[in-house]
Design a protein that fits this description.
Layout lengths: L1 E11 L5 E6 L2 E5 L4 E6 L2 H4 L13 E11 L8 E7 L6 E7 L8
Antiparallel strand pairs: 1-2, 1-7, 2-3, 3-5, 4-5, 5-6, 6-7
Length: 106
């Protein structure tokens, strides 16, 4: 599994769920139900101070795990990605790429 932070362009449903994305010059479509959760940020390491009333997005950030297929790819393993959305700006970042596990034969 690789972990990093890279900008990604995400198109969502009306309820904010990722539907399609563009990353590294390729277009992808979400092919399974995405999973959403929130993780604590180390905001004190990134911000000088917490402005009054800035709880959401400062303490926690939204993470989505999505399985995608490159457009025009109908077979093969989907790619599993973790994305985060900055609540203030609405910008998306790619956080993790998960390796597919393939069974080994002996």
């Amino acid at each position: 599994m690789g972990m990093f932070s890279e900008s990604v362009d995400v198109h969502c449903t009306a309820t904010g769920q990722p539907l399609k994305l563009q990353w590294a010059g390729r277009r992808y479509t979400v092919c399974a139900e995405p999973v959403r959760w929130y993780e604590r940020r180390q905001w004190w390491a990134e911000e000088r101070r917490a402005p009054l009333g800035s709880g959401p997005g400062l303490v926690d950030h939204e993470i989505w795990r999505v399985q995608v297929r490159a457009d025009r790819q109908e077979t093969g393993e989907p790619l599993t990605l973790d994305l985060t959305r900055h609540l203030g700006s609405g910008r998306w970042r790619l956080l993790r790429i998960h390796d597919a596990l393939h069974p080994t034969t002996a």
